[in-house]
Amino acid sequence: MEDRELTQEIKPPVHTKSPARWLKDNLFNTWYNVLLSCLVLVVLFFAFKTLLTWAFTEATWGVIPANLQLFGVGAYPREQIWRVWSVIYIFCLLVGLSAGIWGALTLRFALVLGGVWFIGALSPFELSTRGWFLGAVAITAGSLLLGRGRTNLRPWILGAWLLSFPLIMTVLRGFGENGVLTSNWGGLLLTLILAVVGIVVSFPLGVFLALCRQSDLPAIRWISTAYIEAVRGVPLITILFMGNILVPIFMPGLDINQVLRMMLGITFFSAAYMAENVRGGLQGIPRGQHEAAQAIGLNYVQTMLFIVLPQALRSVIPAIVGQFIALFKDTSLVAIIGLIDLLGVARSVIANPDWFGLQAEVYLFAAIIYFIFSYSMSYGSQEIETALGVGNT
Amino acid sequence: MKTHLTEPQGKIKDPIIVCEDVHKWFDDFHVLKGITTSFEKGEKAVICGPSGSGKSTFIRTLNRLEEHQRGKIIVDGVELSDDLRNINLIRQEVGMVFQQFNLFPHLSNLENITLGPIRVRKMTKSEAEEIALSLLERVDIADQAYKFPAEISGGQQQRVAIARALAMEPKIMLFDEPTSALDPEMITEVLDVMRELARSGMTMLVVTHEMGFAREVADRILFFDEGAIVEDAAPADFFDNPQHERTKLFISQTLQH
Ligand SMILES: Nc1ncnc2c1ncn2[C@@H]1O[C@H](COP(=O)(O)OP(=O)(O)OP(=O)(O)O)[C@@H](O)[C@H]1O
Ligand SMILES: [Mg+2]
């Protein structure tokens, strides 16, 4: 009995600090810290005061709701808007199913997504729009419930995500004259499409380039190195220009539209940076890992796929997501060849005499939209890092 | 010199590894200078020698982690060449245990062991797990199956590494200083597993400085110096009646502590 007392496990002590205590320890612990903290507080107060006064008294926010559809889809024709909603529904379906099956971060994402649709449904839009929003809520929730616990569907859902890609493009474009020309795609829709295509294609391409750069075959190594260095030596804007002008000149038979040209430019540009990020991760993997994998008979592809890449990619998640975020924001450069993405819409709204002089409101709105998406990616990356932290030395 | 050849029935009956005049260079540095020897099925050979003498390099050429540039190596009837199929065939027959364990940190101990059987031997997951669990039982750490390598001690990690190699059902096991990175109290638990493996009839080549283990388990001790086999003898002869000055010096130095 006594032995038991002696070896009894006790919980580690928990230190909770009151907010006052925290403030004292962190902001007011020395005289110069006190001074610095007060100074910062004063600056913050005046900065926010000016901003808030402006936002609530002077700003004319009416410009945002009046142009919401423009911000959302640009010149996408109204009578074809069902195409956009269909794409959103496909997306909701897949997100819901994934959330049901995987849970964790995907579940939180689905809940936030559903929440956004729900707010949309409650907002004072036209009735038809609110109906579409309500549909999105229903599909997200329904597919979530449908997917719950069906872990055996995992490979199918992954496949569906891949297939959804061409499907979404087809639905958005439609066919021939009855469809919607890509030159009419615009606003946030265009920004997201360019970003998602860029991210999803440049990632595997970057991994491939990084592996090539480490290849034992000199020719492959040189080609990949030359590509990476060439692309990294040129600004994205130049590549986009060249894509727009040179592709039609050198491949006159190849009739690819401007959106596709921009997708290619962004993807090839991003892949070079991605490759360098991944290479950093690959270099951090000790030789012993390769050798142990080879010693149990794994071939090159298996060694990379099961041993090296999972560790290498995990270690460079912050850099990779940083690259994704940069790509997302860089899509705004497509404006230079006349595509009207989110930022392009912002500019055209300001140019409209009806909304003269409202730059601050419009740009602030665009900035907030960019921020929401960028921060979500950043947040997601931190969550993924934490989730993958298990067993990491 | 080759004592085992001159023993009454010591003729090699069934060699599973044959090396003929194996040379290896790192750039201009001549690491292996003509190794000629062979190992029988079920034989336990201990390889020792001073640091930098090429012990690791030698056993790593046997599963082609290092390439030899001259001579011939035949493992289980297959000659090691540039042919990738041969290399992969041989790696399935030859298990290897490293000084630094080299477990895969992103996989659980169980997954470390099942990876090879599933991906290379094409077993189903449940078959592989059954084998892995029985191997973990055999190396006496069944309770650590679902932990990650970083969560167990060095001795336990090395035993997982041994189980990982055994899961491929190899005919030959290579050990490169399997206890050198371990604290003294953990050395015994790893050596015990190796003793048990030796009793089961496995062909084993062990680079080690554990002379007690060598005397007890080895059929043969090979002494390497400057990329060549200087002495090759049964343990009794090796320790009590070494033929070469270098060997005598080495034995007196290692047995001091
Ligand atoms: N990849 C390599 N490139 C160049 N030189 C190497 C390489 N690997 C080993 N060497 C050199 O080859 C020689 C033999 O190395 P090896 O690792 O085989 O020695 P060892 O007998 O195992 O020594 P130790 O007891 O220190 O492990 C050493 O001088 C070492 O520096
Ligand atoms: Mg060594």
Task: Give the tags.
heterodimer; A: 393 residues; mainly alpha; globular; B: 257 residues; alpha/beta; 6-stranded mixed beta sheet; 4-stranded antiparallel beta sheet; 10 helices; disordered N terminus; binds adenosine-5'-triphosphate; binds magnesium ion
How is this structure best described in words?
The complex is a heterodimer of chains A (393) and B (257). With 393 residues, chain A is an all-alpha fold. Chain A contains 18 helices and no strands. The longest helix of chain A is centred in the last third of the chain and has 30 residues, at 359-388. The radius of gyration of chain A is 26 Å and the shape is globular. Chain B is an alpha/beta fold and 257 residues long. In chain B, strand 9 (220-225) and strand 10 form a beta hairpin. The longest helix of chain B has 16 residues, at 184-199. Residues 1-10 of chain B have low confidence and may be disordered. The A-B interface holds A 286, 288-289, 291-299, 302, 306-307, 310-311, 314, 390-393 and B 63, 65, 84, 88, 91-92, 94-96, 98, 100, 102-108, 115-116, 119-120, 148-151, 161, 164-165, 167-168. The complex binds adenosine-5'-triphosphate and magnesium ion.
**Relative strand content of chain B:** 15-25%
Structural class of the secondary elements of chain B? Answer: alpha/beta
Low-confidence stretches of chain B are 1-10
Largest sheet of chain A: none
- The secondary-structure class of chain A comes to mainly alpha
Helix content of chain B: 25-40%
**Biggest sheet: strand arrangement of chain B:** 6-7-8-3-9-10
What share of the residues of chain A lie within helices? over 70%
Please render the helix and strand layout as text.
The complex is a heterodimer of chains A (393) and B (257).
Chain A (H helix, E strand, L loop, with lengths): L1 H6 L11 H8 L4 H28 L4 H4 L1 H6 L7 H22 L1 H19 L4 H21 L6 H20 L13 H27 L4 H15 L3 H15 L7 H26 L3 H9 L4 H16 L1 H14 L11 H10 L7 H30 L5
Chain B lengths: L2 H4 L8 E12 L2 E12 L3 E5 L6 H7 L8 E6 L2 E2 L4 H10 E4 L11 H11 L5 H14 L15 H13 L5 E5 L7 H16 L3 E5 L3 H7 L2 E6 L2 E6 L1 H6 L4 H12 L1
Parallel strand pairs in B: 3-8, 3-9, 6-7, 7-8
Antiparallel strand pairs in B: 1-2, 1-4, 4-5, 9-10
Helix pairs in contact in B: 4-5, 4-6, 5-6, 6-7
